[in-house]
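Aggregate trends can hide what the representation actually does to any particular protein. In the encoding step, the backbone of a single protein was reduced to a row of integers, each denoting a local shape. The record that follows shows the chain in one-letter code together with its fold in token form.

***
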Amino acid sequence: VSGVEETVFGFSIGQPWPNPSSAGTNLSFSLPSDQPVRLDVCDLKGRRVARLADGTLSRGFHRVAWDGRTRGGGRAAAGIYFFRLAAPSGVLTQKILLLR
């Protein structure tokens, strides 16, 4: 035994903060292994508003920020949005309320 404890990460997504937000928000998530990940911001109809991650990420804890802008660079309208994290480990979502 090496005496070094190994941290065990599960597939999880945290609560966005701040929430509600008027300018943007942060989101944290963890991965149990290196894997391809796609993290999107979607509106209530499931349409992608922004993509925050698309590629292979390492095992462990990750933090991303959404500045409240659409993929075209404009400000997203006030309303309810969802962070959608999709990976081989599964799909997780969190709700965010964007105020203007």
User: Anything to note?
Assistant: The chain has a mean pLDDT of 93. The longest strand covers residues 48-57. The radius of gyration is 15 Å.
